[in-house]
Amino acid sequence: MNDHLPASDASTSGGGPMIRFDFTGKVAIVTGSGGGIGRAYAEALAAAGASVVVADIDVARAAAVAEGIRSSGWAAESVRVDVAEPASAVSMAEAATERFGGIDYLVNNAAIFGGMQLDLLLTVDWDYLTRFLAVNMLGALNCVRACYPAMKERGGGAIVNQSSTAAYMYAGFYGLAKAGVNSITQQLAHELGGQNIRTNAIAPGPIDTEASRTVVPDVFMKPILASLAIKRQGQTSDLVGMCLFLLSDEASWITGHVFNVDGGQVVRP
Fold first, then answer.
1. DSSP H helical ranges for 72-164
2. What are the pLDDT digits (tens) for 3-19?
3. Where are the domains of the chain?
4. CA atoms within 13 A on the CB side of 13
5. Which one of 58, 72, 78, 225 is most buried, counting C-beta atoms within 10 A?
C-alpha cells in the first residue's frame, strides 16, 4: 500500500498548493464537513480518490457538499450525525460500511464554534457547558469508538482529530475542550496502535471561516494576526496538506502527536 504517489493530484477549492496523494480504494469519514475546514478536508480526500462520507448535524449542508463532490466525478455520501450521541455515531459508521464497504480514515472535525457563547468557566450555563464538551471533546471519542471496529477489519487505518492552539492558551471552555482532545489523541494512540490504527491531531491557529468571523470580530482578530510569525489569517487550504499527510502511509510511524498549523502562533518544545 502506498498512499503517496506522483500520479494523483488533490487540491482544495481554496486555491492552495497541489497536494499529491492517492487514496484510491479508501473510505474516509469527515465529521462536521457541511462547511468550513471539514468541507475542505472532505473535498481534498475525494479529489485524492477516497470515497468520502460527509457527516454533519446539518443535513442540508452535508447533502450539498456531497452533491458537489459527486458532480466533480468523485464518490461521496452525506450522513446526519450528532457526534455527542453514541447511537448516532454508530449509525454513521454503519452507513459508511453499508455504502462503501468499510472505513479506513476518520477525521473528527465536528465542533460547536460558530455562534458559541462567550463566557467564563465560573459562570457559563452548566447545561450549555455539558453539551459543549460532549460535542467538542467527547464527540471525537464517540466517533472513534463507533468506527474503529470497521477500521480494524480493514487491517488498520488512521484518525485525525481537530484540536486548536486554544488548547495552549487562555481560551475558556473552548480551550478546555481542545486540551481534552489532545489527551484523547495521545491515549487512543496507545489503545489502538496494536491494531495498526494511528491517531494524531491538528491544532489550527486562526483560520478564516464563516464560523470564526461570527466568533472573533476584526477588532480582536487584528492583534492576534499581528502576533503571528506569518502575519496573515490561515485559510482552510492551509490545513489540508497536514491532514492528508497524517492519514497517508507517509506518516506510518507517526501517532499520538498534535501538530500545530498556525502561522507560528504557538511555539512548543
1. 86-100, 126-136, 138-153
2. 433 334 444 444 444 55
3. 27-257
4. 13
5. 78
The C-alpha torsion from 15 through 20 and 26 to 32, rounded to 10°, is -30
> Cell numbers of 257, please?
502527536
Under DSSP, is residue 116 helix (H, G, I), strand (E, B) or coil?
coil
| CATH of span 27-257 | 3.40.50.720
Helix axes 59-71, 36-47, angle to 10 degrees: 30
- Determine the 3-state secondary structure of 259 from DSSP: strand
Per-residue confidence (pLDDT) for residue 217, from 0 to 100: 66
How many whole angstroms from its chain centre is CA 228? Answer: 23
Q: Among the options 41, 105, 148, 174, which is catalytic?
A: 174
Provide the 8-state DSSP code for 130.
H
pLDDT in tens, 231-240: 988 899 999 9
Residue given cell 477588532 in the structure block: 219
Whole-model pTM: value is 0.90
Beta-ladder partners of 19:
10
Q: Where are the alpha helices (DSSP H) in the chain?
A: 36-47, 59-71, 86-100, 126-136, 138-153, 172-193, 210-215, 218-226, 237-247
Q: Is 128 an annotated catalytic residue?
A: no
